Amino acid sequence: MLDAVPPLRAHAGAQDGERVIKLAVLAVGGQGGGVLADWITDVAERNGYVAQSTSVAGVAQRTGATIYYVEMARDTGRLPVFALSPSQGDVDILIAAELMEAGRAIIRGFVTPERTTLIASSHRIAAVSEKIEPGDGRASSSKVHATAEAASKRFIAFDMEKIAADNGSMISASLLGALAGSGALPFTRESYEQAIGAGGRGVKASLAAFGAAFDRARGTAAPAPRPAEPAIVESALGAGQVSGPQNLLQGWQALAARIDLLPVAVRDMALRGLRKVVDYQDIAYGRDYLDRLDKAVALDGPIQGYGLSIAAAKHLANALCYDDMIRVADLKTRSTRDKRVRREVGVKDGSILQVTEYFHPRIEEFCGTLPAGLGSYIEDRPKLAAFLDRRINHGRRIRTDSFAGFAALWFIGGLRRWRRSLLRHKVEIAHLDGWYALALDHVPQDYALAVEILNCRRLIKGYSDTHVRAQSKFDRVLSALDMVKGRTDAADWIRRLREMALKDEKGDMLDGALKTVATLGPDKIG
User: Fold this and answer.
1) Is residue 419 within 8 Å of residue 413, measured between CB atoms?
2) Edge-to-edge order in the sheet of strand 66-74
3) Is the pTM for the entire model greater than 0.70?
4) How many beta carbons lie within 10 A of that of residue 357, not counting itself?
5) What is the pLDDT of residues 504-517, one digit of tens each?
6) Angle between helices 246-260 and 283-298 (to 10 degrees)
7) Do 331 and 279 touch, CB atoms closer than 8 A?
């Protein structure tokens, strides 16, 4: 008969040598959560611990992280009883591979102020719920930081993704370095490094990322330099590096000199807008942008904080840089995009990357890339437009790693030199001029309302069907202008309608709000 060995269980009065340490890792696909859990298990076993690692898979990327769960206890000869998944209020160390995963761990009750060391990378990956928001749907990072500080016994957070990328490794290596540097586990640095070395692949890069994160968690690394405050640009001529042919550089310097003549409060936004517009088209387009901006600056002043001019600088640039087939093709054939895709996919130098681009042009996009007269001729004849649409309006897959596919997109992107003569440009500029004139006409009577009219340009974005829906919302919001102008709260009403339109994809909330506006009396305060 075999003698039964009583199992080791965690309990409140257990000695340190008998205590079960409970650690959870939250990571999504591609972040190396499984590798990290294996490393932690290896480190524990190298130090005379018995460890168990399990995982509970999430749904898909950004709809649910996989939870890797490790329990460990010193090997005392008794068989430990380990759980298969974490429980609320019963986690000693929680590692989150990005900031919002830390927030979700707190919501699920895995982090407690009297017990849990919370280690999180401070970088962000937008969740699906954030991406589908028509406006700015990003959750507040500062709120997560504040909540994490209050909810945990100790909170360690810095950009571990950047540390990994800078060292050519995966974030799992820098997460392990942060864990080791935190001192939350009773193991030496050398044992962590030995576990990494045992993997045999990418050891040098992983050790470099581990070491950088270890020093940062210990507080021995030099803090990252703080970015310069963007509120004031001393000189546009000295901002950033610009290269190119001499004649174009002279043109850019002339435009940058005009930025320096603007009020200080406006310069930063104006310089950002100018860079975007010139990159989108050319130097002459940048000159047009500044000419339009000057109209708002002439009506503005320091008493209002130049709010009108700042809004004009931002939204004029976005309006001038509308998305069309030319823009999409141009961006997809830039060398910077190829480098970004290779970096994100993890393609090694010398390896072949096959890229398939998906296009589904409608007759409207086709006509928009034609000379204004020809495009209007087709659109004005529904039968001809329908005939062409049946032959154009279907999905296409273009391999940009092939010569033919790349050349086709490169040719379309090259049409931007003729963009000003095309139908889409004629339509967009007419719409821009009408919106801008409407805003500036309201400045003498209601400055705040004029600013809100400019801000309504936020509603227009996207390409193809998305652009059509966005412009419809824009038109519906401004349809309330005649009903609210002259009221003391007119600007506030336009702002409310715009925010509803940004949050409401179908537009039901906006329709209800417009009905409310229609019932307002002239003297009624909203």
Assistant:
1) no
2) 49-56, 66-74, 21-27, 93-96, 117-121, 154-158
3) no
4) 18
5) 767 677 888 888 88
6) 10
7) no
